[in-house]
Amino acid sequence: MFNQKAAIFEERSEVIDQIEYDSDQFIITLKAPKASKAAKPGEFAFVDCGENT
After folding, report:
1. Mind giving me the DSSP string for 7-51?
2. Alpha-carbon distance values, 43 to 24, 35, 39, 51 (Å)
3. Sign of torsion, CA 44 17 53 11?
4. Of 48, 11, 51, whose CA–CA distance to 31 is shortest?
C-alpha cells in the first residue's frame, strides 16, 4: 500500500497558449510555477475557469 498524500492547493495561472480542435476540445498551456514544482508524472490538474466564462 502506498503512503502518499497529494498536494492540494490553489494557484491563479496565466494562459500562455491555447489550441482549439474539433468538437470543442482544447489544449491550454498555463503558467503555474507552484503547480509545476509539485507535479509528478501521471498527475492531472483541475482547472476552474470561474463563472460566466
Report:
1. -------EEEEEEEEGGGEEEEEEE-HHHHHH--TT--------T
2. 23, 11, 7, 25
3. positive
4. 11
Confidence of residue 27 (pLDDT cuts 50, 70, 90): very high
Instruction: Give the separation between CA 9 and CA 35, rounded to whole angstroms.
Output: 8
From CA 29, how far away is CA 15, in angstroms rounded?
Answer: 6
- The CA-CA-CA angle for residues 31, 33, 50, to 5°, reads 55
What value does the mean pLDDT of the chain take? 85
Which residue is it, cell 501521471?
42
The C-alpha cell of 20 is what?
A: 482549439
